[in-house]
Amino acid sequence: MAATDAQTSLRHAFGNVLAFFILILIGVLAFSIRLFSVIKYESVIHEFDPYFNYRVTQFLTKNGIYDFWNWFDDRTWYPLGRVIGGTVYPGLTLTAGTLWWILNSLNIPLSVETVCVFTAPIFSAFASWATYLLTKEVKGPGAGLTAAVLLAMVPSYISRSVAGSYDNEAVAIFALIFTFYLYIKTLNTGSLFYATLNSIAYFYMVCSWGGYTFIINLIPMHALLCIVTGRYSSRLYIAYAPLIVLGTLLAALVPVVGFNAVMTSEHFASFLVFILIHVVALVYYIKGILSPKMFKVAVALVVSGGLAVCFAMIAVLVAMVASSPTMGWSGRSLSLLDPTYASKYIPIIASVSEHQPPTWPSYFMDINVLAFLVPAGIIACFSPLSDASSFVILYIVTSVYFSGVMVRLMLVLAPAACILSGIALSQAFDVFTRSIKLQLPSLSIDSPVDAGDGSSESVVPDDTVKTDKTEDTQKERTSKKSRSRKSSSESVEKPSSKSQIKKRLSVLPLETSIIAIVLLVLLGAFYVVHSVWAAAEAYSAPSIVLTSHSHDGLHVFDDFREAYAWLSHNTEVDDKVASWWDYGYQTTAMANRTVIVDNNTWNNTHIATVGTAMSSPEKAAWEIFHSLDVKYVLVVFGGLVGYPSDDINKFLWMVRIGGGVFPHIKEPDYLRDGQYRIDNMATPTMLNCLIFVETDGKAFDRVRRTEIGKKHFKLTHFEEVFTTHHWMVRIYKLKPPKNRIRGKTKKSKSKANPKTVSKRKELKRNPF
Amino acid sequence: MVRSTTKDAQDLIRALWSAYSATPTNLKIIDHYVAFAVFTALIQVVYVALVGTFPFNSFLSGVLSCVGTAVLAVSLRIQLNKENKEFKDIAPERAFADFVLCNVVLHLVIMNFLG
């Protein structure tokens, strides 16, 4: 017996060490696969939003945390300004700032930009370790390792966390998975220590991302599901109630959330279930101390009396909620619950490309093979069903719904898909390897010896595996770290008479198992190949630098940075630059000039003003910009090089958003027969508006593949000051207002001096 | 009907009382603590109804601190109750240590939020 014990513990030790090294390798893999953008382009911050985060981090590292909390930024949203301390989710910038500070105090002089660029890959390694921990709580270490490997490479997560994508999701996904892991761990162990850690992890999540409302609604839903399906236990109470109290307090601490933590509908679900769980706990307690007859009496009394009180309270609550026009939900949450809401009421949310619903191909692009492993995982979770696996099932169902609403939320689907696919793959490998092991004659001699180490798994009778006494097995599994369940210990721990039944249930023919294992490995290979391809080709573009391959080599289009550098060198520090809101963050961060609107899009009217100006004829546009103190206007034109996301393609959104606030801008004025054209068939309004006039260039537009409708006109109120190398960014300066104003006074002047008559005639010919 | 209902109610209350008196003393102490915390929260709510919610963060932090300690005390009671089979392998010292840790975190947050 001692020999088998030693063998068992040796095996466990070996398994633990192996799992540890595998986890290290997974972390390295997750980090390295995201480095393609640094290798192919350079270590630069990508896209638009990360530039804002980078600027905030620069400010934090330069000025310290108190100035950061109290920062009022006057270089954006001119003339309104923006309270940065109160409107930004500080988690990401504080994390990167802390990392930079630690490294610098250890005398490793990395620049802020380097730390910002590499924050996302580091936290993706952490996220895969968190996935291992979470899936280990649900099913065991084998499933955990599989899920971790899948998450390290899933293209959907890579797309938002490449090196350089310094956005909230980089740390938020790690915080999400870690919070879920701690919740499941508390649910499995019932320890208040993990409940405290859970609340702290939830606080980190609230600091990092607006998507924390997903957590604070999913956990109450799961608690409700457990109560309704009769799986209430005191561990559920310990897991849920302290999280809600501490979590609400901690969420209210973050300035962005503030009192919204108790006043908006996003949080009401948690309070309702909080009250409900107390009622249920009380009921169970009374049931425990009373005899059954008295309990029936109690139920009858309470039902008659308490229901009236309940209805009154619910009526008050409903009246309060219904009195607000959006029923207490914020605009963004409503657009998630009702996918058509944004297009009807909030055009700005509808215009963002990552808020559109995804297409079917994007599911296969983003989660690839996992898309059809997920249903297998759901079935595997049902056998046996435990609290943890019911949570994972709920998570995948809700995240599939939300990912169908907005393509950006496929990111929330990715961890759930990886967990379930990991469970499915691990179970499949289990069955196949067990079949092989039971059928290989040489190994069957060892089976009585293996029965000894089944004692460490605790002799579980056959029938209870299939029922929901899985709390015991879960606890044994968590208290003893067993190696991956590829070993046949699970099957042979039962007495050999029962192994006959087991054999009939889940042993497959030898050849089938071998072929199936080979096929599964091939599946994994396809997944890996696709993920690496997606990371290298599809998701590594920094979008501030563009490349194209032609017959004479690689062309690099660095026009954006060229334009911003021109702005920062050739304009005054206080000059205001107007452009469409997409470029606001980049302009403030790289050109260091004040902008009118930027990507934060919190003020619809201000954006509508800029949109109206872009859609109006020159003089009206000049008036609007002059009233905003604008000196320079920046437009993006892709017609020469074929860059498809330029301002002409975004123009209809400018019209819609402007028309939403200023009714004289009507979308049909710009369309000919309902079609959007810029060639000679375009409407006069279209041909005269500012955006069109400013982005004209060569006669042929490569993006729209038409000839420009109006060539050879002169600008009267704006003058062009800079155009980049590939004509992608064009900067115009507002001409100063005229000293003399044409009008009726000219007649009196002409009587006085004949010279002015000729001057007036000249003036008429030359508009300025 | 009414007569039997009141008689039932009296029987019920008597049964509850006798069953409750059988609980050990340490659990009763925790129950008194929970009752005290809830009562304090109620006083605060009445006060806010009278005076208005002006420093709302103070009200929130006060009420949530009462509710929080009540919840944590109930969790401690669950873990210390010998009749709960799921918790038989948690030592009472460990349960109390967890309780203290959670309270420390809770009160740190409260002090920060109190304004």
TrEMBL record, chain A:
It comes from Trifolium pratense (Red clover). This is Uncharacterized protein. The lineage of its organism: Eukaryota, Viridiplantae, Streptophyta, Embryophyta, Tracheophyta.
Automatic annotation (TrEMBL), chain B:
The keyword Cytoplasm does not apply. GO terms for biological process: protein N-linked glycosylation. Its main location: endoplasmic reticulum. It is found in: Endoplasmic reticulum membrane. Keywords: Apoptosis, Endoplasmic reticulum, Membrane, Transmembrane, Transmembrane helix. It is a multi-pass membrane protein. Pathway: Protein modification; protein glycosylation. One of its GO terms (cellular component) is oligosaccharyltransferase complex. The keyword Endoplasmic reticulum applies. The chain crosses the membrane at residues 33-50, 56-74, 95-114. Subunit of the oligosaccharyl transferase (OST) complex that catalyzes the initial transfer of a defined glycan (Glc(3)Man(9)GlcNAc(2) in eukaryotes) from the lipid carrier dolichol-pyrophosphate to an asparagine residue within an Asn-X-Ser/Thr consensus motif in nascent polypeptide chains, the first step in protein N-glycosylation. N-glycosylation occurs cotranslationally and the complex associates with the Sec61 complex at the channel-forming translocon complex that mediates protein translocation across the endoplasmic reticulum (ER). All subunits are required for a maximal enzyme activity. Belongs to the DAD/OST2 family. Component of the oligosaccharyltransferase (OST) complex. This is Dolichyl-diphosphooligosaccharide--protein glycosyltransferase subunit DAD1. It comes from Trifolium pratense.
